[in-house]
Amino acid sequence: MHVVYERCCGLDVHKKIVVACLIIVLANGQRQKEIRTFGTTTRELLALLEWLKAAQCTHVAMESTGVYWKPIFNILEGDLTVLLVNAQHVKALPGRKTDVKDAEWIADLLQHGLLRASFIPPAPQRELRELTRYRSSLVADRARTINRLQKVSSEKVCSRSAQRGNYPA
């Protein structure tokens, strides 16, 4: 198959770890694979970025079904071309049971240009979305707090009135 990217990396992303498979096509046509596991702390993700930059990696593809891809994408996006791929497209074939095999599979597919990136809005639009969602959650929290205070205060008024004999207990 035709090689599209000579230096690329596949990432299998989880909550606490990221398994990376770097594939480099050497001058003699041989493929060299290097596999490393990183944590998901900022320090570990920066180490991942430095490792990829030192290897002159140009493209990275990652597969994640949750939101765990976001910090990785935010760290890598300025320096590398990052593709977030749909997990259903990557896992079309059975047989890969380990994280290492998943990372290798993603790297192989990327190297041959067989992956299609999911749409990720540009950074300013992502920031605006995050701010509006945060505002919505604050408004909802405020409404819940007001309702809770009204409920507590009305219960106290009712219980005091019942004690005075104004209302049946």
Question: What's the helix and strand layout?
Answer:
Blueprint: E1 7-13, E2 17-25, E3 31-39, H1 42-54, E4 59-63, H2 69-76, E5 81-85, H3 87-90, H4 99-111, H5 123-164
Parallel strand pairs: 1-4, 4-5
Antiparallel strand pairs: 1-2, 2-3
* Number of extended strands: 5
Distance between the termini: 83 Å
List low-confidence stretches: none
Q: Sheet bearing the most strands, described? A: 5 strands, mixed
Cα radius of gyration in angstroms: 25 Å
Strand order of the largest sheet: 3-2-1-4-5
SSE order in H/E notation? EEEHEHEHHH
Entry keywords:
single chain; 169 residues; alpha/beta; five-stranded mixed beta sheet; 5 strands
Short account of what is shown:
This protein has 169 residues and is α/β, with parallel strands linked by helices.
Note down, in words, how this protein is organized.
A 5-stranded mixed β-sheet has the order 3-2-1-4-5. The longest helix is centred in the C-terminal third of the chain and has 42 residues, at 123-164. 47% of the residues lie in helices and 21% in strands. The protein is an alpha/beta fold. The mean pLDDT is 87.
